[in-house]
Amino acid sequence: MKIVVTSMCLAAALCAGSAHGADPKGVERFRTLTVETVYPFKQFDFDPPLQVSSADGAPAPSDGDTPLGVLRSHFAAMRKGDVDAFLLTWNRAAREQLAQAQLSGEAERTAAVARWRSVLGGRDVSLDTRVEFGNYVLLAYSVRDGRSAKVIFKDTVAFAREQGQWKLTQALAKSPVLNSWNTPGGRVQVAPGALLDGQP
Predict the structure, then answer these.
(1) Sheet of 31-37, strand order
(2) How confident is the model at residue 77 (pLDDT cuts 50, 70, 90)?
(3) Pick from 26, 57, 68: nearest CA to 159
């Protein structure tokens, strides 16, 4: 659920007067307008979590063309240091963006592989929750220490179909559903272009 908070003056004339000093000032009040946008989605929790990628390199079950299958291929490519296979798990728009920026050259690819090995070395990846939102599927996973099972970090990624196949996508990168689906109480406040720091 998204709550949009916007600051406003009582009337446009008062705003103009305070900005230019030309018109008489009335009694100034600051208020907020709250607009609620409700995002319905389905949530499926896994207990115990499902294996995505194992620290010992044991292959995970094959799921074929499903979001979970793509996520497993995604992490398998990262463990192998296979940049091309990693890119193929993304949709075209994200793949082109990655290829032109973070993975644009040999040095960038080598650095990325080193980061992947640092993040995944000795750690397991497991799927905790699946969220279905319109045409998108979100998978929330945990990266855990391979010995202690301590959670190192959690993340959520989005999937959408492209030419009939599931692919990772950045289309929801700024969506409150992707970023805040598990917020306690299911309510968040967002101030789009408002007076975030007291300045216009």
Answers:
(1) 31-37, 2-8, 188-190
(2) very high
(3) 68
Cα four-point dihedral sign 165, 166, 170, 171:
positive
Position 199 scores a pLDDT of 43
Window from 54-58, 144-148, 185-189 with minimum mean pLDDT: 54-58
Mean pLDDT (the chain) is 85
**Under 8 Å between Cβ of 143 and 79:** no
Which conformational region is residue 160 in: left (phi greater than 0), alpha (psi within -120 to 50 degrees), or beta?
beta
pLDDT at 21: 61
Report d(CA 108, CA 115) in Å as an integer.
Answer: 11
Give the H/E segment covering residue 171: none
CA distances from 177 to 78, 80, 89, 162 (A): 26, 31, 22, 21
* CB-CB neighbours of 144 under 10 Å: 19
Taking residues 42-54, report their average pLDDT: 95
Average pLDDT, stretch 122-147? Answer: 97
Dist. CA 110–CA 82, nearest whole Å = 10
Buried b (16+ CB within 10 A) or exposed e, 168-185: bbebbeebbbbebbeeee
Distance of alpha carbon 99 from alpha carbon 106, whole angstroms: 11
